[in-house]
Specification:
The protein is mainly α and 605 residues long. It has helices at 3-23, 36-55, 61-71, 79-93, 96-103, 118-149, 151-170, 175-188, 191-202, 208-234, 238-241, 254-274, 281-306, 309-327, 335-375, 379-408, 410-431, 436-443, 452-462, 465-501, 531-560, 562-583, 598-604. Helix 1 packs antiparallel against helix 13 and helix 10 runs antiparallel to helix 12 (254-274). The longest helix has 41 residues, at 335-375. It is globular, with a radius of gyration of 27 Å. Residues 509-519 have a biased composition (Low complexity). It is found in: Membrane.
Length: 605
């Protein structure tokens, strides 16, 4: 193809993009490659506000639930009394009450330090699992609606649900109203998955991981800052400031609820004023045009390396042919085969997502038990450990994942994160092998699972000061592994799922087959599956793992102790990493356009 014909093709493509942008609904903004950073910043800012509002409640949960317990004391017909009764049965089922009762007749060296207010801690975990189960139900529905109605419209509707949820919490003087607020929030929360879908809409396969890393960075920042904000505003008692509102349900923790409500209000107004619709034909054309430009740049880079002008002509021809072959690879597959491949890959990714979060969230939930149980951590020390994980995860996502994912490869980065998790959990398992309480949990009375000589050696090591310091270093080494995992696995799995949704989306954007009359047609011939629905299903399986993981991990932890619990989890993560290495797709093998074909990469090296 001559330079003149290329110029005409580019002009036609640009004209098509401009026409589609002009036909887009009002308020959508201009869809162009230059708008991608701006839209990404809008999505990131809104998501950060959303997660900050979500994390405000985390440090308040024990005291908030204790407030409801005190205020509803003696009412055996309340939802709170029924919930605590079911949790007592759960503690008996996992043997926690048996361990605690047996400790009263044991020596002080082997007594189990049962965390204070264990029923309140478990109730908080149960409410967290309830929220995740509701997200498991709602995520595919929200995703499907965003394919049909548009991302912007569905996101604003979900924000309305979040505002109602915080409004109910603000005046929830009873436990029933508080649970209602969590149910509303669980069913309406859609910012995370829609942010992922919107970034996927406007980025190319080569820049997808870089864009989606911003979601992980927002999580890391919010989970580091949000709890501190919630704890600070919890000291602002609105009942004392506005006693007349107490009769309407204002309670001592309404200050934090009001802060969350303000953040969500600002986020909603910001989204309404700034966010364009990304699920539109104009954005699809703009992305495809960017992919073409990336191919041209790769060809130019290879040409610069080629040397002589004669060789340049030959190289250009071979590169153009290779690139065309790569970019049209999916044309050899009919749409039914592409759809079948997508479903297969998404199923594998969803299973991996579920399995990873099932183990990771479970161990994350029991980590505070372990640090109290073995190290007598105060709330300040607990916060320091969790803050270390959050800050390190944020730095890794901004400095490593965002910059290197498309070079290292999303699949390889997932495996790196899983191996880091296995090593981290193994390190925590090793340092948890001390303390009379751990020995008691391992023994379970006369049911010893370890040789007595090994138990004696562990008990002796636990009395040594140097051993405690060494175990503290081992604990933070394990926390480092968990931070690496938090920064890599879910982000890159999400990137892979998003890229799988793009399979087949390499048709010439100027061809009639890829242009439809509706700018918000959510399913074109070049995209066999709705991206919102696919990513919603993917997220829902992760949420199911996040709901079930803490229950299973808590049961195992109190039944066999931290050494066996974390050791088994470490082995299980290794097995999942091995399985993932066999079943997860690689980006370079997917029938989608990438930054450059393998031939181009080889010639430029």
């Amino acid at each position: 193809m001559s330079a003149k014909s290329k110029t005409k093709g580019s002009s036609a493509s640009a004209a098509s993009t401009a026409a589609a942008a002009a036909a887009a609904p009002a308020g959508n903004g201009v869809a162009s490659p230059h708008s991608v950073p701006k839209v990404t910043r809008i999505v990131f800012t809104a998501l950060l506000l959303d997660i900050l509002a979500f994390t405000i409640i985390l440090p308040l949960s024990p005291r908030l639930l204790q407030f409801y317990r005190d205020s509803e004391h003696g009412d055996q017909t309340s939802l709170l009394a029924w919930s605590l009764s079911r949790l007592t049965e759960f503690q008996s089922a996992i043997g926690l009450n048996d361990h605690y009762n047996n400790s009263s007749s044991s020596s002080a060296s082997s007594a189990i330090k049962r965390p204070p207010k264990m029923d309140i801690v478990l109730l908080g975990g149960a409410l967290g699992s309830l929220f995740s189960v509701l997200q498991f139900i709602a995520s595919p529905i929200i995703g499907k609606l965003s394919d049909i109605l548009g991302r912007r419209r569905v996101l604003l509707i979900s924000m309305l649900g979040n505002l109602i949820s915080c409004g109910v919490w603000l005046f929830s003087s009873t436990f029933e109203l508080f649970v209602l607020s969590r149910i509303i929030g669980g069913l309406s929360e859609g910012n995370v998955q829609l942010s992922i879908a919107m970034i996927s809409d406007i980025t190319t396969p080569a820049t997808r991981s870089k864009g989606l890393a911003m979601v992980g960075i927002a999580f890391a920042i919010a989970f580091t800052v949000g709890p501190a904000m919630g704890a600070y505003f919890a000291n602002k008692d609105l009942v004392a400031a506005f006693p007349g509102l107490a009769e309407y349900g204002l309670h001592p923790f309404s200050g934090s609820a009001l802060l969350a409500l303000v953040l969500l209000t600002v986020e909603s107004l910001y989204l309404w004023a700034k966010l364009p619709e990304t699920n539109s034909e104009s954005w699809r054309l703009a992305v495809q045009q960017t992919v073409q430009q990336e191919s041209v740049e790769a060809t130019a880079a290879a040409t610069a390396v080629s040397g002589s002008s004669a060789r340049t002509t030959t190289t250009n021809g071979s590169i153009t042919s290779s690139s065309s072959s790569s970019s049209s690879s999916s044309s050899h597959l009919d749409q039914e085969k592409i759809h079948a491949l997508q479903q297969s890959y998404l199923s594998r990714l969803s299973f991996t997502h579920f399995a990873h979060l099932f183990l990771f969230s479970g161990m994350e939930f029991t980590l505070t038990f372990l640090t109290f149980h073995l190290f007598d951590f105060s709330h300040m020390q607990q916060g320091a450990l969790l803050g270390y994980i959050g800050i390190l995860s944020s730095l890794l996502q901004g400095g490593y994942v965002r910059r290197r994912a498309h070079i290292v490869g999303e699949k390889r980065m997932v495996l790196q994160g899983m191996v880091a998790a296995a090593l981290g959990l193994g390190s925590i398992a090793l340092v948890s092998g001390g303390g009379g309480s751990t020995i008691s949990l391992l023994l379970g009375g006369e049911k010893s699972i370890l040789p007595s000589t090994l138990i004696d050696a562990i008990a002796w090591l636990d009395t040594q000061e140097w051993s405690r310091k060494t175990r503290m270093w081992g604990l933070y080494a394990g926390a480092t592994g968990l931070a690496v995992t938090s920064a890599t696995v879910v982000n890159c799995l999400t990137s892979l799922a998003s890229l799988v949704c793009d399979m087949g989306s390499n048709t010439d954007p100027t061809s009639p087959s890829t242009t439809t009359s509706s700018p918000q047609n959510h399913k074109t011939p070049s995209q066999p599956i709705g991206k919102g629905l696919a990513l919603g299903r993917f997220r829902s399986w992760g949420q199911l793992g996040r709901a079930a993981g803490p229950i299973a991990a808590c049961s195992l932890y109190w039944r066999v102790g931290p050494l066996v619990c974390y050791g088994a989890a470490s082995f299980a993560v290794f097995m999942i990493a091995f399985l993932a290495s066999r079943i997860l797709p690689e980006v370079r093998k997917l029938p989608i356009r990438t930054r450059a074909s393998p031939a181009v990469v080889k010639k430029t090296q």
